[in-house]
Amino acid sequence: MREVRWGVLGAGHISHRFASSLKKVDRARLVAAAGRTPSHVEEFFRAFSIDAAHSYVTADDGGDAAYDALIADPDVDAIYLALPHGMHTRWACRALRAGKAVLCEKPAVLSEEEALSIASASRECGVLFMEAMKNRFCPMRTRVEDLLASGELGCIVSIESVQKLDYGESPSSYLLDPLQGGCLYDMGCYAVGWFEDLLAGACDVSSREVRWRDVSGGRVDWADEIHMSVGGIPIHMVCDGKAAYESRLMIACERGSVEIERLHRPELAHVKYSDGRMLEINAPFEVDDFYGEIQHATQLVQTGELESPVMPLAATQRCAQIIDAIRLTL
Known about the structure:
The protein has about 325 residues and is α/β, with parallel strands linked by helices. It folds into two domains: about 5-135 and about 290-305, NAD(P)-binding Rossmann-like Domain (Rossmann fold, 3-Layer(aba) Sandwich); about 140-285, Dihydrodipicolinate Reductase, domain 2 (2-Layer Sandwich), CATH 3.30.360.10. It has nine helices and 14 strands. The protein has helices at about 15-20, 40-45, 65-70, 90-95, 110-125, 140-150, 185-200, 290-305, 315-325, and strands at about 5-10, 30-35, 55, 80, 100-105, 130, 155-165, 205-215, 220-230, 235-240, 240-255, 255-260, 270-275, 280. The longest helix is centred in the middle third of the chain and has 16 residues, at about 185-200.
């Protein structure tokens, strides 16, 4: 297999985590990076030994020239897109049209319309696009889906997701942007990814309670409690950006239940059977929580695949449909 040469758009914290994990992926190498904050980008260049010839930074135009230069770099095969959510569609489409495969940080899009635009560009250009929904590439996902498919627990009858953390008083600026901020986009997308993966059918939202935070230019959702269904299966979803940490997914079935801890990066689950039996599932990461998605995307580029069987374009679109349905319910 040929080596896949990666470039990174954006040099924030998430890109550092990607680059650290990429070092452990066979036949993959980070060769270029671009950003708009000189101090952040220069720190990233030093930390990951990016050659000056492939180090792109410009602040005056919001980063456009740097991003364009990286996309045009002939030594880059694939791009990890780690810019704020609202910039994903524009830069994903530009990269795809330049022939670069794209692994895009979650949430890949802000709406179904954006998902359709990216899917169209990917298919028209014959270039891979994959959303980096990392919990789909953790060993726990396979263990849970195998258990559910075995029929031991019967059919799913309801799901509850709880995600809470304290963003603090000065969170990342994108979280305070009325167009792309708030906790539904930032953390709720992980729960929505599970719903999309486990349940077929349409989404129907019956109620949504929101605690808003006023910000410059509008407001963002700082806590959400949602009652909805997907394919007729009831779902209770909670996201909170000002609370003590909690993260779990509870799947209730006809003959028992599964509770997954840390639903965004799961390694432990508890199974309870209706006859009183209990089972603990330990499914540690192969390397870390980023490794699975990076390894998978690298292999897709190596083999010339145009879509991921684990996180296909249709899954990104359907996740966007669910979030659209929630956002339109006030």
